[in-house]
């Protein structure tokens, strides 16, 4: 049980380190559900972890997004920390 939980934590941490490029056009991603395209375009998440927490975005949508980002050469950052900006938003920054 503990090993499964640790693996889930590692997977979540990896998603937090996987950036989504600014201006990413979700409407160009054919395999995303319509709802995911609309919501992700509106929310504009900074990374895959944030995208996975958007209401209406399914695990299959997140997997499609990760595959597409990988094909485009976007990989998770090796080490990153989260910082809270002056406006209260959390952004990933290099450690």
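Q: What amino acid sequence fits the structure above?
A:
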């Amino acid at each position: 049980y503990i090993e499964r939980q640790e693996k889930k934590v590692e997977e979540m941490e990896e998603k937090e380190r996987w950036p989504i490029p600014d201006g990413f056009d979700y409407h160009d991603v054919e395999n995303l559900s319509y709802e995911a395209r609309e919501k992700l375009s509106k929310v504009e998440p900074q990374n895959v972890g944030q995208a996975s927490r958007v209401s209406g975005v399914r695990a299959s949508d997140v997997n499609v997004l990760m595959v597409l980002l990988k094909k485009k050469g976007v990989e998770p950052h090796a080490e990153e920390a989260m910082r809270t900006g002056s406006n209260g938003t959390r952004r990933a920054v290099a450690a």
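Q: And what stands out in the fold?
A: Residues 80-84 have pLDDT under 50 and may be disordered.
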